[in-house]
Amino acid sequence: MPDGVSMQNILIVSFILLPIIGGAFLIKYGLSHLFDVAAGADGVDLILFRNFVVGTINYKSISAVYKRGALRLSDEDTVVGAFLTVPVVNRIRLTGIIIKLQSGIFRYICVTPEKPDEFLRQVASRLG
After folding, report:
1. What predicted TM-score, i.e. pTM, was given to this entire model?
2. What are phi and psi of 80, to 5 degrees?
3. How many angstroms separate the CA atoms of 44 and 74, rounded?
4. Alpha-carbon dihedral of residues 22, 25, 26, 30, nearest 10 degrees?
5. Of 19, 36, 68, 70, whose CB has the highest number of CB atoms within 10 Å?
6. What pLDDT digit, counting tens, does each position of 45-96 carry?
7. How far apart are CA 62 and CA 78, in angstroms?
8. Are 43 and 62 in contact, with CB atoms under 8 Å apart?
């Protein structure tokens, strides 16, 4: 090794840099490489590893879809709905898209697609 560089210094620098690089990656991309949501032909698809559709929320079971800001209730929300929302979030964002289902215990699902406005338009247009 070069003079003045020890294995201990390399370890210290790597233990400092790795969390910084990892944190920056999570802020930019979140967990979108692990799972994501997309508007499919039959419903909202939950996609695993960017290739495998592991579940679909049929458009027939969706009663509404809208954007909600962080810590704000919109006109469509109720206090009960805000606490019974299932977070399927994979990106760090201040806004999420709420999918309101027609029935079930958890009638609200919060998702964070890559392009929220486009996702909202696509799902809303297929709902009628």
Report:
1. 0.69
2. -65, -45
3. 22
4. -150
5. 36
6. 988 888 899 999 999 999 999 887 765 555 555 555 566 778 777 777 777 8
7. 17
8. yes
